[in-house]
Amino acid sequence: MKLLKRCSSIGCLLTVGLFLLICSALGPRAFAVQNAESAGVQDLLYQAREEAVGLDRDADQMEALVRSDIDWQTHADYLESVKTHVNRLASLIDKLQAEREDASPWQQQTIDRVVPMLREIAANTSNAINHLNENHVRPVSGDYPTWLRANAETSHELAELISDTIHYGQTRARLEKLAGELQINPPELKSR
Length: 192
Prior knowledge:
Structural class: mainly alpha
Shape: elongated
Number of helices: 6
CATH superfamily: Alpha-catenin/vinculin-like
Number of domains: 1
Helix content: over 70%
Order of helices and strands: HHHHHH
Number of strands: 0
CATH class: Mainly Alpha
Strand content: under 5%
Radius of gyration: 25 Å
């Protein structure tokens, strides 16, 4: 019985050793597919960035309107534009979540981070619209300015996060391409 246990332990060690030998012989390039970014996700991120930049611009404009003497209808027009960007982004985020399993680790992390940001912006936008519908005056009262300020800040963070993720993927791809051209194994890059 002891001999059988010893043999199975030796067999286990041999199996682990063989696995490690094969992994080291294959090198990191054999596992690069696992960390490669998904082109479909990258395309959706480009589209999301365009919407996020438009949202960011409109949210900044909304915040600036609070400091000026502009009528409520102008506010309503800008809120409608913000709402349109939020709805388009929500549609893109739904597509990104559907593609999440094919995404690289850094793309997955971005998908996970943008969802609560977009929810916050949507909630603030809904609150601002409801406030405006109830108060057809110059809207500077109550929490209205707070919602607009929060939207401006979160929209900026959202646009920056998506842009940084795209830039990171582009930089990583260039590094891997150069490493391939030089026929070297690049150092492992930590996923964001």
